[in-house]
Amino acid sequence: MKKTYQIEVDCANCANKMEEAAKNTAGVANATVNFMALKMKVEFEDGADEKETMDAVLANCKKVESDCEIYYE
Amino acid sequence: MNKKQKKMLLRIIIASVAMLVLMWIPFGEALWARMLRLGCYLAVYLIIGYDILRKAAKGIYHKQVFDENFLMAIATIGAMSIAIYENGDYTEAIAVMLFYQIGEFFQSYAIGKSRRNIAALMDIRPDTANLLTDNGIEVVEPDDVVTGSIIVVRPGEKIPIDGIVVEGQSTLNTSALTGESLPREVKEGEEVISGCVNLNGVLHIRTTREFEESTVSKILELVENASSRKSRSENFISKFARVYTPIVCYSALALALIPPLVLFVTGNGHGFSTWSDWIYRALIFLVISCPCALVVSIPLSFFAGIGGASKAGVLVKGSNYLESLSNSRYVLLDKTGTLTEGVFEVTGIYHNRDIEKETLLEYAAYAESHSTHPISKSLQQAYGKELDLSKVSDIEEISGNGVLATVEGKRVAIGNEKLMQHIGLSDEIQTQTDAVGTIVHMAIDGRYEGYLVISDRMKATAKSAIADLKKVGIRQTIMLTGDSEKVAHKVAGELGIDRVYAQLLPADKVEKVEQVLAQKHHDKEMVLFVGDGINDAPVLSRADVGIAMGALGSDAAIEAADIVLMDDNPQKIAKAIRIAQKCMRIVYENIVFAIGVKVICLILGALGIANMWIAIFADVGVMVIAVLNAIRALFVKKD
């Protein structure tokens, strides 16, 4: 399953860090952050729960960049 | 400006004014005066930097040591401490923070602006659809329109969903999709694609696709996803950024410890001032250590380049293709549909002395009147008059050879040489050697009467397109075609194409691409293949970069190609290459400029020549200049 989310982040380097953080989250097969479009595309692993996984993704992103936001539901 | 930016601007103004005022107040040397002075400056420092300090603290908590907030906090706190000890210049620490914030503010503003620019460029997404229901017209989200519904498009509105016109006629402006403002006439029964703007009449359209599957959605998705296919330059920069910051930070640590230790051991140290001098130099390193200028400007250049290209009707599916495109040296072109119109027309009629040209053409048109083959169509078109189908009878098709039919009581045979052999006339065939194209022989009542030459018309822009390719640095142009050698060489000669491979089957084309791939001198040289997207998907994917042209409305082409030209003008190939070259030039400029300035400032800092102000320029100034440079990729020269 692939989903695209609107995100908010201020600097390009932070967007790269968010991408890394999202990729290293359990349940995420792959993730790409498009800083210019302010979008995060997440490819979930089979059977991963979207809400739970995204909670974890956001928590991990907040660790690397406290000033970021991901809009999912 | 959003709320966040306004707040930041206010903080910048307050801090700047407060700092300027404080600089003019004589505080004196008494302890209380020193404390008061420290208090005042500290207040200004906190006004401008409190969020950085807070983020730095959070960073430490999450073990993000090379976070730029952390670096900025260390650098300014260090500078403050040195100033406290010396009762010296607090303004430097505040200025570093102040300029850093100004830089961040400017970056956020500039990126916001370019984001809006690019978004406006791609503002082809329709917001609503006028659905025709039993109760009149209802305005709905395009997403909610079921396939097969009737939608109404008024003049000035965008067509939201692909479909077929069921009522009305109008002129469409396709410029949002193709970059060319060539109006297109549409009437009942014709297919229309989403994203075109309806110029005059009201159109009723029966939708043939869901919104998500419509051309406009596909194009937007394609362009938005383009940046996830990263180019080599982008990968280089993210790798560089990952090692650059730690290296500079460790160098800073080394700079703060090793030289003063050496000085003290050798007996050249002068107490604390030696330490503070080297610590100051180390702090300069920390300020320069942020890789933001590179990290933001390289992807931004690609994003702007892709945005600018899509405005010109060139859809690029990824930054990597833009990079490859700029290095293209060999271009393989398909003939039919790429260099020629793919539309056949009668270009020559050769007839016996005792039969009129028009009569021959008339018989030809009638004999072929029941066929929809492009060649038959071209005969009917050349004849140009209405056909009375009752005049034709006894049609007998001989597959692959031609047609036998009775027209007004006469037995007409029309087809290739094999057909003439079939009816025993092979000895009568005459063809002049200069005839180029498909030759259709005709016999009437068993007598050979002449032949027609049918050829594909060359595109008006084909010749200058090939010349343009040479101008943008293409070493060799190669034409691939299934046509005969004779036709192929004539076309190639007229257009100035370097090499020709004729009589190819689709599978042979892949082989030819592989041959060219094998003979290139250098890995960096790229091989392009340009086709019309029909039947050439394997070739498109085999070449380094596959370009499909005339893709308006053809999903197969959009899927298979790396780069899609929305209209069928071959001049767009060179234009796409120029856009790519400009974009790559900007990318390299930014890489060299940003790394160059940083390295120079690091050296100057280590030698004690550069101060904080120069360090701030190396960080923020470079970033701002690089961002502005990146935006240039957005603008595509009109020609």
Question: How would you summarize what this structure contains?
Answer:
Chain A is α+β, with helices and mostly antiparallel strands and 73 residues long.
Number of strands of chain A: 4
Question: If you compute it from the alpha carbons, what radius of gyration of chain B comes out, rounded to the nearest whole angstrom?
Answer: 35 Å
Structural class of chain A: alpha+beta
What do the pLDDT scores of chain B average to? Answer: 84
The radius of gyration computed from the alpha-carbon positions of chain A, rounded to a whole number of angstroms, is: 11 Å
Please tally the β strands of chain B and state the result: 22
In the CATH hierarchy, the third-tier topology of the largest domain in chain B is known as Rossmann fold
Assembly annotation? heterodimer
Instruction: Give, in spatial order, the strands making up the sheet with the most strands of chain A.
Output: 2-3-1-4
What are the low-pLDDT stretches of chain B, counting only 5+ consecutive residues below 50?
none
CATH architecture tag of the largest domain in chain B:
3-Layer(aba) Sandwich
Integer average pLDDT of chain A = 86
- The shape of chain B, in one word, is elongated
Q: Which CATH class of chain A?
A: Alpha Beta
Share of β-strand residues of chain A: 25-35%
- Quickly count the helices of chain B: 20
CATH class of the largest domain in chain B: Alpha Beta
Helix content of chain B: 40-55%
Profile the largest sheet of chain A: 4 strands, antiparallel
Organism (chain A): Agathobacter ruminis
GO molecular function (chain A): metal ion binding
Protein name (chain A): HMA domain-containing protein
Domain HMA (chain A): 1-69
Primary descriptors:
heterodimer, A: 73 residues, alpha+beta, Alpha-Beta Plaits, 37% helix, B: 639 residues, Calcium-transporting ATPase, cytoplasmic transduction domain A, Rossmann fold, seven-stranded mixed beta sheet, six-stranded antiparallel beta sheet, 20 helices, elongated
